[in-house]
Specification:
V-type proton ATPase subunit D; two-stranded antiparallel ribbon; mainly alpha; proton-transporting ATPase activity, rotational mechanism; V_ATPase_D
């Protein structure tokens, strides 16, 4: 874009220059802070991405173990183990709660599981297969833990991704639009103020010239008036005309000048 389009339309005054400089300082500080925020969010984004990859890699093994444990429990305790477990369960023992974690001003949702109350189906499969049922329960609890962690990481990942995009847009706007526009405006105001200063200097020189010529003209007028008064006085004393008196005074002045020379 050209400098004309990158410049704000302002009145070139000293006050406006100060305002533009203050805005430029604020834009520079804001750009630095947003850049630091973007870097911090990017670091956290990469850490979360690594955790997501490792969690997904471990999730396959955990889910496979839970599936095999369920198959083993059904094999040992029978196919009706599902109905027995559901009859003994009244409320969920594992629950998930949400909280927020602040990372460089961005609130990331965090999910964590907790145990609420005692396990009601501890005696399930007491007749046969009780140990396999407990192993199946432990394997599925581990799977739930991994799923809750993965859900928390992926939610934070999406939130951070949107926050980084927004922050980077602001950083680019400050760096490529706002700051160049303010700098061009400051340069324009300085150039206009320099031009006005040169015009004022030229105007003062012209005014001084006019005053000097006026003073010289006044002096010449005063000198002519004095000569007229002297010539008139001489003409009255000598009884001669004004022109003759002027000639006499001119000759006397030239004679004096010759003597001085």
């Amino acid at each position: 874009m050209s400098g004309q389009s990158q410049r704000l339309t302002v009145v070139p005054t000293v006050t406006m220059l100060g305002m533009m400089k203050a805005r430029l300082v604020g834009a520079t500080r804001g750009h630095a802070l947003l850049k630091k925020k973007s870097d911090a969010l990017t670091v956290q984004f990469r850490l979360i991405l690594k955790k997501i990859v490792s969690t997904k890699e471990s999730m396959g093994d955990v889910m496979k173990t839970a599936s095999f444990a369920l198959t083993e429990a059904k094999y040992v305790a029978g196919e009706n183990i599902k109905h027995v477990v559901l009859e003994n369960v009244q409320n969920a023992s594992l629950k998930v709660r949400s909280r927020q974690e602040n990372i460089a001003g961005v609130k990331l949702p965090k999910f964590e599981y907790f145990t609420d109350g005692e396990t009601k189906n501890a005696l399930t499969g007491l007749a046969r297969g009780g140990q396999q049922v407990q192993l199946c329960r432990a394997a599925n609890v581990k799977a739930i833990e991994v799923l809750v962690e993965l859900a928390s990481l992926q939610t934070s990942f999406l939130t951070l991704d949107e926050a980084i995009k927004t922050t980077n847009r602001r950083v680019n706007a400050l760096e490529n639009v706002v700051k160049p526009r303010l700098e061009n405006t400051i340069s324009y105001i300085k150039a206009e103020l320099d031009e006005l200063e040169r015009e004022d200097f030229f105007r003062l020189k012209k005014i001084q010239g006019y005053k000097k010529r006026a003073i010289e003209k006044q002096r010449e007028t005063a000198k002519q008036f004095a000569e007229e008064q002297v010539a008139e006085k001489v003409s009255l004393q000598k009884g001669i005309s004004i022109n003759a008196a002027h000639s006499m005074l001119s000759a006397a002045a030239e004679k004096d000048e010759d003597i001085i020379f």
